[in-house]
């Protein structure tokens, strides 16, 4: 991975050995590390409720399967936020937008911690997730400023931070929830978001808007951008299928691990299972190199094959823990490889990367939210096998719908 100065498009300052750095050099050094950490923290907010569902259900006198829909609310909120806020990266001050959205997300998380019922909690989660679009405002910036032959690897570095945040939400959220209660987890996430969001905004470069005109012109342009780019359309649909399969399995996993009809683990023990998600952080840089070398299409095909193998392993994992562990590693590897390939394609296929990235990520999260919404009832009616069936259907749809067009 190149230096922060390369990623920001700036030239390293030539200083004599031992000479103090100026403010610009210090900001340049902080650019990529802060983007990665901020991406991890904000991405964790979307999945904060998933490992805490048993605790939330107990607190509100309900059952885990009855509150599983909260995970779908988070994803729908994120998709809505992406739809309205992410395209603004082409037309407004990105530094100000990142800072404001981070503070809104932090305030919503505090409101969620104080909620007295599932309705109020759902509203807070919806607002917090809608404001948690900071990673998708930062990824286009990194892609724009990366060397062409290393663009996928730079995108992969941010994606690795994103998936590290997802893992942290499940592992640390589960452990902290077991020790201090789910409300304390929400407050802790609010504090981290309130600190890191404005700090990241401070190190972003000053940019000129790409687009003039109405504030939400990017939103109006979305259908045309997708329609005129077959590569972008394919990336959107395939990631919706891949993300939907992963989301159905991963957001329902706490029900299997902690449920009386499953493995009967504590919330903390179930949260530790999320460590298998670190496979995504390991695979992301490798996937970036493969995309730069072999192209996005080959990497996505391989990722779908790996995901297809993981689904029957997940089904077997309902009874055999070793199979569940293997499936968790495979599905994360497949998801992140597909994501790096598809997002790199989405960011480079049009002249409006923020708008194209919005279309791509909204498609993925919409597919994930719908799959999660179906997975909860499927688990209630047919058990873990129903969840695996939902995941399998999403993979088939994601691939079959896009296989009719020639890809590059």
Would you kindly provide a written description of the structure presented here, covering whatever features stand out?
By secondary structure, the protein is an all-alpha fold. The protein has 17 helices and no strands. It has helices at residues 4-8, 23-46, 53-59, 69-85, 94-113, 118-131, 134-145, 151-180, 182-203, 217-227, 230-258, 267-272, 278-294, 296-316, 321-348, 353-382, 384-400. The longest helix is centred in the middle third of the chain and has 30 residues, at 151-180. Mean pLDDT is 81; it is low at 1-27.
Proportion of helical residues: over 70%
Average per-residue pLDDT, rounded, comes to 81
Outline: globular
Q: Helix/strand-derived class?
A: mainly alpha
Number of DSSP strand runs: 0
The main pleated sheet reads as: none
| Strand coverage percent | under 5%
Using only C-alpha atoms, the radius of gyration works out to 20 Å
Secondary structure: elements and pairs:
Blueprint: H1 4-8, H2 23-46, H3 53-59, H4 69-85, H5 94-113, H6 118-131, H7 134-145, H8 151-180, H9 182-203, H10 217-227, H11 230-258, H12 267-272, H13 278-294, H14 296-316, H15 321-348, H16 353-382, H17 384-400
Helix pairs in contact: 2-7, 2-8, 2-9, 4-6, 4-16, 5-6, 5-9, 7-8, 7-16, 8-9, 8-13, 8-15, 10-16, 11-14, 11-15, 11-16, 11-17, 13-14, 13-15, 14-15, 14-17, 15-16, 16-17
């Amino acid at each position: 991975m190149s230096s922060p100065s390369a990623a920001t498009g700036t030239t390293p300052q030539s200083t004599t050995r031992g000479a103090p750095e100026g403010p610009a050099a210090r900001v340049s050094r902080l650019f990529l590390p802060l983007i990665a950490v901020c991406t991890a923290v904000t991405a964790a907010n979307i999945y904060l409720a998933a490992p805490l569902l048993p605790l939330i259900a107990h607190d509100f006198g309900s059952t885990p399967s009855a509150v599983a829909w909260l995970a779908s609310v988070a994803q729908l909120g994120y998709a809505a936020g992406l739809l309205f806020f992410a395209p603004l990266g082409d037309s407004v001050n990105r530094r100000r937008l990142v800072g404001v959205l981070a503070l809104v997300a932090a305030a919503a998380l505090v409101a969620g911690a104080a909620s007295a019922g599932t309705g109020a909690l759902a509203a807070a989660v919806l607002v917090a997730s809608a404001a948690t679009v900071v990673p998708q405002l930062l990824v286009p910036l990194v892609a724009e400023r990366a060397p062409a032959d290393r663009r996928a690897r730079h995108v992969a570095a941010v994606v690795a931070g994103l998936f590290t945040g997802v893992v942290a939400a499940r592992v640390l959220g589960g452990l902290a929830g077991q020790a201090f209660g789910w409300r304390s987890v929400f407050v802790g996430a609010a504090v981290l978001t309130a600190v890191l969001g404005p700090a990241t905004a401070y190190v972003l470069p000053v940019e000129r808007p790409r687009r003039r005109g109405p504030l939400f012109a990017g939103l109006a342009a979305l259908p045309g951008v997708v329609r005129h780019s077959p590569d972008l359309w394919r990336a959107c649909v395939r990631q919706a299928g891949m993300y939907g399969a992963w989301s159905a399995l991963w957001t329902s996993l706490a029900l299997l691990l902690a449920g009386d009809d499953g493995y009967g683990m504590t919330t903390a023990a179930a949260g530790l299972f999320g460590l298998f998600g670190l496979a995504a952080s390991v695979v992301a840089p490798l996937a970036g190199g493969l995309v730069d070398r072999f192209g996005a299409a080959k990497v996505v095909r391989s990722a779908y094959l790996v995901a297809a193998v993981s689904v029957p392993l997940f089904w077997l994992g309902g009874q055999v823990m070793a199979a569940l562990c293997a499936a968790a590693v495979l599905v994360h590897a497949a998801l992140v490889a597909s994501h790096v390939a598809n997002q790199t394609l989405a960011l480079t296929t049009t002249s409006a990367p923020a708008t194209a990235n919005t279309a791509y990520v909204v498609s993925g999260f919409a597919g994930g939210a719908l799959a999660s919404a179906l997975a909860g009832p499927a688990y209630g009616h047919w058990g873990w096998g129903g969840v695996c069936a939902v995941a399998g259907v999403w993979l088939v749809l994601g691939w079959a719908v896009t296989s009719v067009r020639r890809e590059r």
